[in-house]
Amino acid sequence: MKIVAGTYHVELAGATVECSLRGRVKQKDARFVSVGDRVRVETLPDQSCRIHKLLPRHSALTRHGVARRREQVIVANVDQVAVVVSVTRPEPDFSMIDRLLALSELNELDGLLIVNKSDLWEPERSGPARLPSDFNPYTDAGYDVLFTSAEDGAGLEVLREWLSGRVTVLSGPSGVGKSSLLNALMPGLDLRVGEVGERKGRGRHTTVAASLYPFPGGGYVADTPGLQYLALWEVEPAELTHAFREFGPVAVDCRFADCRHRAEPGCAVRDAVQAEELSEQRYRHYMALLEEAEEGR
Ligand code: GDP
Ligand code: ZN
């Protein structure tokens, strides 16, 4: 459920027990035993608990994306990544949305977009999201987009369905209502408003210390403070084109198979952006991430 200073908090028969790591596992797997992992534990004669085996994973959210061998696992056995933003207060940061969705694509995880504070839509508002249709590029790209309000309850039943029975990494800037949404869905959790996703530091060396909350009715929600600030510096630039899922079907028509969609002649992605068939804003954010990835090589 979480790892604090070398102590592993393991959910066992509905309770959480604090475990150490067996020496042999330590040598082989210490770097790898992560939040979300399934493990076998044993009770020692002094009644303390110890992890003695790491079980196989079906997926993981990692820093580096799937192609990396020595990837650093943030959460193991993840089913989906839910990016949370708000209509306003704070205004949505579309470049952060695209960074988080790219990270989830690189890890081959489903991405969801939750737009909270839907009670605050106003006709003729200004700001980066003027209308719900400003999120159409995401539905067009094939993402589920859900408008919610922790205030008036809109969308909460659908959100409950999305989260139940799955392991969901919940990520987004502070103040968008993550704690409020979880409190509304998980009575008794009693998170301090503002508690989820609090973090320190940003950029390349951001450490993301994850923790899991069991979701009533099955599943877990993973809090990953700082995830939205993770630099994608260790991603293969060539992989990034797959991180923008709507580019894929278009990119097959690029003249060069390894087209990075920047200035190459015969680039079908750039043509589609010009023809307004692909979102110009998503394309700009792709370019920014590409430069970041190239800088990190
Ligand atoms: P977090 O930092 O993402 O966990 O956000 P919080 O849950 O702490 O919420 C930040 C602020 O937004 C608090 O003052 C909440 O009361 C408020 N808030 C949360 N959800 C909503 C919502 O759906 N509508 C409105 N109007 N305010 C909300
Ligand atoms: Zn291209």
Mean pLDDT: 89
As a percent range, the share of strand residues is 15-25%
Number of strands: 13
How do the strands of the widest beta sheet line up side by side?
10-9-8-11-13-12
Structural class label: alpha/beta
Tell me, briefly, the overall form: globular
User: Which range best describes the helical content: under 10%, 10-25%, 25-40%, 40-55%, 55-70% or over 70%?
Assistant: 10-25%
Rounded to the nearest angstrom, the radius of gyration is 20 Å
* Element-by-element helix/strand order: EEEHEEEEEHEHEHEHEEHHHH
What is the helix tally?
9
- Report the end-to-end length measured between terminal Cα atoms: 34 Å
Explain the overall architecture:
The structure is a single chain. The strands form 3 sheets. A 6-stranded mixed sheet has the order 10-9-8-11-13-12. A 5-stranded mixed sheet has the order 1-2-3-5-4. The protein has a two-stranded antiparallel ribbon with strand order 6-7. Helix 2 (94-106) crosses helix 9 (280-295). The protein has helices at residues 23-29, 94-106, 136-141, 156-163, 178-185, 237-240, 247-251, 268-274, 280-295; strands at residues 2-4, 7-12, 15-21, 39-43, 49-54, 60-62, 73-76, 80-86, 110-116, 144-147, 167-171, 211-214, 220-223. The chain is 25% helix and 22% strand. The model has no long low-confidence stretch (mean pLDDT 89). Strand 9 (110-116), helix 3 and strand 10 (144-147) form a beta-alpha-beta unit. It is globular. By secondary structure, it is an alpha/beta fold. Bound molecules: guanosine-5'-diphosphate (GDP) and zinc ion (ZN). The site of zinc ion has 8 residues, from helix 8.
